[in-house]
Amino acid sequence: MKRITAVLAAGTVTVGLVAVALPRAFAAAGCRVDYTIASQWPGGFQGDVKITNLGDPITGWSLAFDFPTAAQRITQGWSAAWSQSGTRVTATSMSWNGNLATSAATSIGFTGAWSSTNPVATNFTLNGVACTGAVTPTTAPPTSAPPTSAPPTTPPPTSTLALAHTAGRVKVSGDTAQYSWPGVYFEGRVRGTGVGVVLNDHNSDYEIQVDGATAATLVLPAQGTHWVNGLSNTEHTVRLVKRNESPWSTGAFGGFVAVPGGAVLAKPAARTRQIEFIGDSNTAGYGNMSTTRDCAGDQVNRTTNADRSFGAITAKRLNADYQINAISGRGMVRNYNGGDPGTSYRTFYDRALLAVDGDVWQPGTWRPQLVVIGLGINDFSTAINSGEPWTPDSLVAAYRTAYHGFLDKLRTRYGSDTVIVVTAAHMSNTAFGDATRQIVQERNARGDNRVRHFSYGETGLDLLGCHWHPSAADHQYIAGQLSTLIGTLPLSW
């Protein structure tokens, strides 16, 4: 992964796909600002900005900073009202994120343009106060901070996963389970009139589901315990699921907790069926809940729901545990429009924590009987740009070679009994579908008859999701087609 490091007078910023907090010395008086270039491509980039209020509580804020070059400019932003005059950028709070208590934080973001160089922003101010790194209270501090939610009455167990079931790619760190992939879920059982979820991930959206129904939707939740109350005083199942993608960050689940008089019960048993879904934005459920095809970055994040993707729907119908290991914009050898050259989906596949270079996930008991792969839309959906190392023929050849290598990896990891479905979405460019069919034919000719082909999208889809992606109705339709195919496969479950 490419990293760019810029040294400022007040500190050092690491710029790349990994979000790294700025040192305390960079913070403005009464605040800290973490500025991260989450991704960068020729002429464009995505910037993430986390604002932490270190001073007295504020009601309404205005953040300002300078771009070092005149060519850097904001093209669109989210979670704030953005404006730019020359190199000076201003972001003003929205109605829902303007109140910041002491030590509270909020995150905003934007996409921008650049030319020649893309240095990090400087000269941050919050409500007109320059960054000094000192906190000078203007009023007497409160003797105690008002609680934002009921305190947990049942502390998480020594191992967070002792009382919570998950099949996702997680890493236990202290009292938390860390993760990055979309669709990761944690399941538990509680008794009582409420349940709390201990969570630390302000970059993602979640659903808390109780007894099979959505009880709460958490949008960029603050660190802490999030409660669902008013339940009947009996036993309940609870499920926390991550809805969207945030490959630049790491979330942390700290367990389920009970209300006074209640209890966290033994976790549900793991399911005997396991399915792994590997893919790109179609597999992730990109913008599938949107009511319009025209979506800004924030709309994509709010309307993506991996729990309503065709993979999750299919697995639930089969009562299977599942993983959705999907990254939008990534291909088998070539990313969307040739972006981020030198990397591909395969760069990240082996990780539990996507933003951590060198991270390796340990499969443990994960041995899926079925793997469904959907990689190739980004390899072939855009024309090859000048300067890319491909011709149409060499791209197909490289794709086929890499795909065979990826299948070999899966065979080594999961064994010869696992059924692998190679998937192709319908495109006007037939190279994708033709290449996947040829790959399956070649595997079958080698004697591996547990590799099958599945195609979808030529008919039956409205593509009303963000940026012409499958809608929620489309994901239901694809799940139906895939379920029909699964019924014909030689699965040992």
Topology:
Elements: E1 4-7, E2 12-15, E3 31-41, E4 44-53, E5 58-59, E6 62-66, E7 73-78, E8 81-85, E9 88-92, E10 99-100, E11 105-113, E12 122-126, E13 129-130, E14 171-173, E15 176-179, E16 185-200, E17 205-210, E18 213-219, E19 224-242, E20 251-258, E21 263-264, E22 273-279, H1 281-284, H2 297-303, H3 310-317, E23 320-326, H4 345-348, E24 370-374, H5 377-380, H6 392-414, E25 419-425, H7 431-445, E26 451-456, H8 472-486
Parallel strand pairs: 22-23, 22-24, 24-25, 25-26
Antiparallel strand pairs: 1-2, 3-4, 4-11, 5-10, 6-9, 6-12, 7-11, 8-9, 12-13, 14-15, 15-20, 16-19, 16-20, 16-21, 17-18, 17-19
Helix pairs in contact: 3-8, 6-7
Summarize the entry for a quick read.
With 493 residues, the protein is α+β, with helices and mostly antiparallel strands. It is built from 8 helices and 26 strands.
